[in-house]
Every structure is written in C-alpha cells, then in structure tokens.
Design brief:
GO terms for molecular function: ABC-type transporter activity; ATP binding; ATP hydrolysis activity; ATPase-coupled lipid transmembrane transporter activity. This protein is of the alpha/beta class. About 60% of the residues lie in helices and about 10% in strands. The radius of gyration is 35 Å and the shape is elongated. It binds adenosine-5'-triphosphate (ATP).
Length: about 600
Amino acid sequence: MIRNLRYIFKGAPALVRKSMLLEWFHSLFVAVPTGFLLLVVREFFSPAPDQQRLWTYVAIMTGLLLVQLLVSVRTFTFTNNMTYTLSTVLRMKLGRHLQKISMGAFKQRDPGDLASVVLQDVANFELIFGHTVGSLVSAVFAFAIVSVFLFITDWRLALILWLALPLVWLLVKVATFLMQRPGVQHIEARNATGARFLEYVTGIRHIKSYGMTGDRFSTLQQALDDFRRASIRTEGIPGPFILLAAAVLEACFLLMILAGVHFFADGSLSVPALVAFLIMGYRLYEPIKIVLVDYTLLRYMNISMGRIVEVLETPEQQGGRVVKPTACDIRFENVDFCYLPGQQVLHDVSFHIPEKSLTALVGPSGSGKTTVTSLMARFWDVDGGSIKIGGADIRDMEPSVVYSLISEVFQEVYLFDDTIYNNIRYGNPQATYEQIIDAADRALVMEFAWEMPDGIHSRAGENGNRLSGGQKQRISIARALLKDAPIVLLDEATASLDPENEVQIQQAIQQLVKEKTVIVIAHKLSTIVRADQILVLKDGRVHESGRHAALLERKGLYAKLWDIQQRAGGWKLNKEVVYEQASGGSVAAGGIKRDMN
Ligand SMILES: Nc1ncnc2c1ncn2[C@@H]1O[C@H](COP(=O)(O)OP(=O)(O)OP(=O)(O)O)[C@@H](O)[C@H]1O
C-alpha cells in the first residue's frame, strides 16, 4: 500500500506532508484535554480539592477544545481540498499517460475497464482517502498520546488494555486477507456491469432491430446479479472478523475493570486512578474502533490504487531523439508485427514510398493494409525491422511528432459531440476563424452547413449522429485540410457513398492530397490505375509491387483482382475515378457514375 501511495503522491509530497502534520496537530488537541481530565479527577478525589485549580483545569480544557474545533475545521478543509486536487491531478495524469502508450498496450484492456480505472477507481481513492486516511492518522496519534497518560497513571491496567492490540491486529489481518479476492472480484463485477450497460445503451438500436432485448437484458441481469453477490461477499466476509475484534476490545475493557477493582481492593490502586481508567480506557479504544472500520476500507482503496498504478506503469512509447524529420519519404525495412503474441500479421515487409508520390495498398481482406498504415502513424511499434520517415526511425520520434506529420481520412469518421466548426478545428487548434472556414469551404462542408439552423456552429451530435456519412467524411477532410500534414493516409474514403456525394468527396480529396506523400488503401482498383506505385499485400507480405500496367502484365494476384472487379456483377464504370500523382505533384480524381447493364 505504501508503494502505491508513494507512486500516486509523486509530485505532491508537500501537500501530503502538510496534511499529515495537520492531522497530527489535530490529534494532539484531541488527546491533551484527556490529560487534563486526569488532573481534574485527581484533584476532585484529593482530601481537600482546590476549587481554583479545578476551574483553571476546566478553563484550559475549554480553550483546548476550542482550538481543537478550529484545527478540525482547518484539517478537514485542507484534506478535502488536497484529496480532490490529487484526484484531478491523477485523472489528468492517467489521461496524458493513455495518450502516450501504444494502441497495443491500450487495447490489451477492455475500454470499459480502462474507463472504470479513470472514473471509478480514482473515485474510490478520493472517497476513501478523503474520509479515512486523515482520521486514521489522527487515531494512531491520539491512541499513542492517551496511552502515555495511562501508562503514567498505572502501567498494569494500561498493559491489560494494550493486551487487546495483538488480537485485534490479527483479526484485522485475517479480515483484510480474506477480503482481498472478493475485493478484486467486486471491482471486476462492477466493471463488467458498467461494460454491459454501455453495450446495452450503445447497441440499443441493433438490440431492438434484431429483437434481442430479452437476451441482452439477461446478460445485463447476469452482470447485475454477479455484482450484487460480489458486493455482499466483499462486505460479508470481513464483517464477522471486524465484529469479533470489537468484541475483543469490550472484553479487554471488562478485564481491565476487574483487575482495577482487584488492585483497588489490595490497596495498590487509588480511586482517582481507577476512575481515570474507567473514563480514559474507553477513550483509548475509540481510535482503534475507527481504525477497525477504516482499515478494511483502506485495503479496498489499495486494490483500486493498484489498478491505477498498473495503468500508470504501462510503458509509454519513447522517442525524442529526432525532433522533426527533414523529408517525408517513408521506408519499411523488414517489418514484422503481431497484435497478439504468436499471431504474426506482417512478415518481413519492405518498401519505399518516395516523397510527394502516390502509393496504393491493395490486397484481399485481412492482408494487412490497415495494419501498414497504423504502423506508419506509430499507433503500434513494430516487433522487428524499422519504419523510417525522412531517413529517421519513427521510434526515435515522439509519437506526437509522428502524428503531426500525418493526416488521415478513414472510412469510419469519428466526430466529437461538438459543433461542426470545432470538429474541424481539432485538425489545428491554433487555426484562425478564416482558416477554418476556408478548409470547410474547400472540403464542401459549407454546402450543407449553410442549410443547418446554426450553420457551421450546429452540433454534430454524439459521434456525428446528426449527420450523414458523406457529411461526416467532408468534415474529416476539412479537418485534414486544416492540419495540412505532409503525409496523407486515405482509407477508401468513398466506399459507402452515393455517386453524387462521391464526386464531391473526390473533389475535396483532390484538394487534400496536392503536394503530399499519399498512401491510399484502395478496394476499387479503378481508382488507382495512375498511382506511382501499387503494393499488393497478401497474408501480411508484399506479394507484388509496381505500376498498374506492369502488374497487369505480370498476370499475378493484382491482375486477378482487377479481372474480378471488371467483371463484377454487371456493373459498368462509365467515368473513371482516378487517384493520380501528376508530375507537378497534384492528384486528379474524377467523378464516378455507375449504370446497371
Ligand atoms: N486490433 C487487432 N487485434 C488483433 N488482430 C487484429 C487487429 N486488427 C487487425 N487484426 C488482424 O490483423 C490482420 C490484418 O488486418 P488488417 O485490418 O490490417 O487487414 P486489411 O487488409 O486492412 O483488411 P480489410 O481490407 O478487411 O480492412 C487480420 O488477420 C486481422 O484479423
């Protein structure tokens, strides 16, 4: 636990030290009045009680209690502020860290599980830390101070009260040991419930349309049942041990009374000392009772902290030796890669993409086209070989540098639940209003945005659900135009569009790829007949490469795919769509119109 706490408090030790100091100070003002209580009792039972002395003690105790109140308020406010500051810092740290780990490490965990680390585990930490750590520290100090007073008064009775400690400690240890597994299971069940709820809400359209409501509900019901059982176990298993520990405290107190009466009878204990023990013995156990409840909570917090530390310790992608490459040609050298251990997806892939050229990636489904583009963008790091941009290994560059070199326009467009304007602005947060409108104009976003109630400031909805597929793609192209990165990755951006939309998207893409190094994943081979280079992938290897005509002559896989597409289903292309890197570095793309024969 100490290691986890240290890790989490890294960067804020001064805050924690101040909080602990305040708690110690607070415990001092809780315990010292008890000492005066002893003096009051002694004075009270003396043969001639001194009234003035008694009033002085009472006045001092009142003063101390007032200070205690002030210190309590200050300690509470400080600890409260510190806890929420720490948890905000922690959440931001987790957010920043998640950005810096590779997609591989990111995807090893269920997204619902990761979200629950950031939200639930940090909430667990702030709730338990804020409410228990302070009182625990205070309790330990108060216990120590009251013990000193008691040992001074009568060491034998104090020792009997202390007898409870090893027993209580043992019972707490057993309780925390027993709750370790249910605690982990409880957190797992909680995450599973969150994930099932998320699945249920996000998939509600499909669940309804496939009439799966009953089935899906039972999955959720199952998760909720598991969660209920896990919650009962987490509280129920340590519960009896904690109750037993409380009973041990009561028993030792009774034992102390019996011994006190015995010592009083044999004349070795005075009345004031006995009364003091009756009052203060109970007070001695108050902090322990707090510890009993809080300690098990603390162990639960430790499980959450362990999960937070585990995420924070996931290695970040390194880089930084190369600040920015001087050119933007791309070279794959003997690249091997697997998403999962033992399942190699790319094998010894080598090729070179000259700067400002157009390269098409083609191949059967699952051949590795998307994987090649993901590796170029350093979403994952290669397992073997290297990828170089401008001659520099991308592993020597900060991932953010690599991202800044690349614009992507993929089939699946992700839009934030924000305005269209802001969604474009993500491409370059420093862009001016004019630059954003210009990008929107060039990507033909303005054509549809004008007609919306708030124009370009209309909201896109969650993941753009208020917009059509074509409109979303135009926004993503505007975003890429605004970013103006030297490398452009296109993933068959027009696959799911109607002909009219497709022509418009092609025009927008034409704007985007001017003077850039372009890599296009093409499923329709007719679009890439004029590419500078076509890489044909099969089973994660470069099976063939060359220009369109040369590949047709070879009569290999490309020629076969071409043949199939030409004959496919009686469709006739009567106007070609072509990506072409012209000698001046521009790419031409025509419109497409299909007629059924
Ligand atoms: N995140 C992932 N985790 C595990 N395996 C993956 C992951 N993404 C892709 N794969 C596997 O890697 C292989 C290559 O996938 P990739 O998406 O690169 O192919 P592709 O050529 O782009 O396919 P498509 O044309 O269907 O999009 C496939 O066998 C796929 O199952």
